[in-house]
Amino acid sequence: MPHAHSFNEFIEKNLNAEQQKAVAQRSGAILVSAGAGSGKTRVITARITNLIINEHVPPHSIVALTFTNKAAKEMQSRVGSFLDKTERPPWIGTFHSYCLHLLKSNPALLAYPFFSILDEDDQQKLLKGILKQHGLVKEVSPKELSWQISHIKNNALDGQMVEQLYRMNPLLHQLYNAYEQEKRASRCLDFDDLLLEALNLFSRHAEFKKEHQESIKHILVDEYQDTNVVQHELLKHMAKKGDKQLGVESICIVGDEDQSIYSWRGATVTNILNIQKDFPNTVVVKIEQNYRSAQPILEAANALIINNKQRNPKKLWSAKQGEDRIRALSCLSEYQEADAIANLIKVAKGIKKETTAAILYRTHFQSRALEEALLKNSIAYTIIGGVQFYERLEIKDLLAYLRLIVNPFDHASFFRIINTPQRGLGEKSEELFFSLWHAEPFLTFIDVINKVIEQKLLPQTKLEALANFISIFDGLSGTDAPEQALEKILLRTGYLGYLKATYEAENAKERNENIKELLSALAHFELNGTDTIDKLLDAVALMQENIHKKKDDPTTVKLMTYHAAKGLEFDLVALVGLEDGLMPSIRAEYAQEKIEEERRLFYVGITRAKERLLISHARYRYGYRNMTDQVASRFLQEIPKNLLPMEDCSYWKQPQMVSYFSHWLGAKTESYTPSTVLTFGSYQSTGSSFSPTHAPKKTVHQKSPKISGQKTKLSRIGHATTTHKETLKKVYENATNGTTTNSSTAPFKKNSPVEHATFGTGIIQEVETKVLGKTIVTVLFKVGTKKIDAQFLKLI
Asked: How far is Cα of residue 395 from the mean position of the Cα atoms in its chain?
């Protein structure tokens, strides 16, 4: 017998009043609007168990649908803990697995009763063949085409939209039809077909629908905000007899529109918002108590998300009270921002080693500066849902080119790039190179290739490709500046065009951003003295060694995008890059619904934090061959100043950072008053009780860029670009309220901008007075740090 006593005791002790209401509702349509951290999985599994134990519903008449196998297994485990092992369990699984179950159980109703399922690899091979038939292998990638086809199928119910798409792109229509014909001939279905064919069972076969509704009496769906158009329509057919009448005893929808962040996968927030319209007399249960975060964190999240129009009103609250749980930093650059985060984590782990910490960013290229700062500080980290920056495919490819410049005997690098981008050199060519190199190991890769060319050991087209490959390295040496060398490699190889042709648009764009970030990193390395290819490769190798030593450490800090963070929680969370163009993304600039999704994404980030939350932004970012002025994210303006104390740490050094974070995390924080608060247009001093040792004078920005209404020339992430010299000068002018000194006889001071006849413009790092009054100045130039006699410098 099911364990009724222990289950009811569990309900009484572990569920609040609203959760119990959602569990106990016996029949009808129920919408459980469950906020972040409110225990929705507990609610949906308790509801299933309650139906079986207390309402005596046969388990086989219950179907619960979710989106991942992991979530399904979690639900199965929780429900199973209260049921007898011998009892047939309810059906709990993903949408796709249930649709497959329906199709396999009803072969007579299908166009072909026996079918195979195309996995992703099979689909890519099929599409590649179709593109080859149409002579489009170089113009369109299989992944891009598969995304377009999936987009069509996910919107297949909107015939007008699909027809319009076909009119705009007749070639896509042609390729789509060819793909469908190939699948039919092969008796295959792809994953999108599983949903569509299951929907057809309900919409075209009235008897099947009737039998299903007589058999399945209770339907539950988790994470409903992630459903697409087809899934929503499928659910309506499963649960409704007519326009207004239910065909089942109950349907329970659990979700949170405020966490709908997957529109790029086809999810639409309107599905959950339309439940009451699609299912009249729906009972709405709001679950607003949060069991994860301290109250100030939730207050900030509530203040942010209330600005969205596409939502059902709710307000998260927590019994976990607290003060001063959120801080914000305005940093000079992404490098200072990364150093600040590293110092925060060192302090937090020093106070409590078991502290779980995460760093969230909008897009993957942002991880590079963070990774370097963590490695520099010997902080172990793991990237969730991605790979370390220097482990990414495109980065490893380009570094392999640089390695061959320094070491022409590097077999691994040679074999990695000899056919990347594709040059028609396959396995047989590689086997030839391997055997020649094995026979004469003291030959360089150029010697081996020349031998193949001279002896004509391959067809003429391949020999020409090899000659072109050698030409990539003309005039390059290990003492060259890394950034300039990589630019030549990109130009000579056509690597960016290769990415565009090989990957679907969004993926190619992300890889392109990573390459821009690599170029920015090389420029930064040069600025700090790592100014040759061989020095650069040594520095990267040492960083990689640290990564591999630490990657299995269970106490690692987690780095991830906002999307990858959904469903996770951490004691300490740092949200970086809160700047217009990054958060919200520049791609969302001109569409209100996209801005709302970006706001939901930020909301998800905030609600990952249990105890402490740090939000940061940079005033400048290093771009490819420029620096950009950044504007603090418009979303920060939506959070009350008393919840988001902002410090301008632009000129802090490590001791000030450590002191600041130690005070926040370990001192009597209730007495803290921020020294600057965010007002967007200026920073206003509030007289901080925090005063780090030797803290720099506070900066007051009287003319900071405004959120909107100011048009500037756009750069990579949408803000005004400046030259290196202009930026250095502007940074200093901002720091001194625009009062720079132009006299060459004025005293040299730290952080002053100077000019040198050979090295150009730089910033003073240190001033030393030697015997006989000689002044030696340490200056950070673009080419690196130099110690120079002051008489050869001019203040600017």
From this structure: 18
Is 455 assigned a catalytic role? no
**How far apart are alpha carbons 194 and 181 in whole angstroms?**
17
Q: How far apart are CA 404 and CA 406, in angstroms?
A: 5
Q: What is the pLDDT of residues 77-94, one digit of tens each?
A: 998 888 877 677 899 999
Taken as a whole, the chain contains a residue count of: 796
CA distance 478 to 537: 10
222 catalytic residue (yes or no) = yes
CA–CA separation, 584 vs 668, rounded Å?
35
In a domain, 726, yes or no: no
Q: Which of 19, 45, 123, 259 is an active site residue? A: 259
Contact 576, 336 (CB under 8 A): no
Average pLDDT, stretch 435-454? 87
Catalytic residue among 144, 192, 197, 222: 222
Catalytic residue among 223, 249, 258, 371: 223
Per-residue pLDDT tens over the stretch 450-486: 999 999 999 899 899 999 999 999 999 888 888 889 9
Boundary-marking domain end, from 508, 536, 564: 536
How many CA atoms lie within 13 Å of 300's alpha carbon, on the beta-carbon side? 30
- DSSP-based helix, strand, coil % in the chain, nearest 5: 50, 15, 35
The answer on 120 and 105 residing in a single domain is no
- How far is the C-alpha of 366 from the C-alpha of 583, rounded, in Å? 12
Higher-scoring residue by pLDDT: 785, 286:
286
| Farthest CA pair distance, the chain | 103
Residue type (1 letter), 758 = T
Alpha carbon distances (Å) from 618 to 330, 331, 351, 389, 706? 6, 5, 27, 20, 15
Task: Please tell me whether residues 121 and 76 are part of one structural domain.
Answer: no
Do 572 and 668 lie in a common domain?
Answer: yes
In a domain, 695, yes or no: no
Residue 758: predicted pLDDT: 66
Cα angle 665, 669, 672; round to 5: 125
**Domain stops at, among 473, 506, 536:** 536
Residue 352 lies in a domain: yes
Under a CB-based contact definition with an 8 Å cutoff, are residues 452 and 466 in contact? yes
Catalytic status, residue 40: yes
447 is catalytic: no
pTM, rounded to two decimals: 0.73
Looking at 19, 41, 530, 676, which residue is catalytic?
Answer: 41
Same domain, 606 and 569: yes
Give the domain CATH number at 524: 1.10.486.10
Task: Provide the number of structural domains found in the chain.
Answer: 5
Report the CATH number at residue 788.
2.40.10
- Active site annotation includes 259: yes
pLDDT in tens, 160-186: 666 766 777 788 888 988 998 888 888
Identify whether residues 570 and 635 lie together within a single domain. Answer: yes
Residues 103 and 123 in one domain: no
**Token pair in block for residue 76:** 């199965």
Mean pLDDT of the region 486-491: 92
608: number of Cβ within 10 Å: 25
Q: Which residues form the domain of 524?
A: 390-536
Which residues, in sequence order, are CB contacts of 455 under 8 Å at separation 6+? none
Same domain, 674 and 584: yes
Q: Is 580 a catalytic site residue?
A: no
DSSP character at residue 224:
G
Q: Find out whether 224 and 253 touch, Cβ atoms under 8 Å.
A: yes
Task: State the burial class of residue 761 (Cβ atoms within 10 Å of its Cβ: 0-12, 13-18, 19+).
Answer: buried
Catalytic residue among 40, 183, 240, 346: 40
Catalytic residue among 143, 311, 608, 612: 608
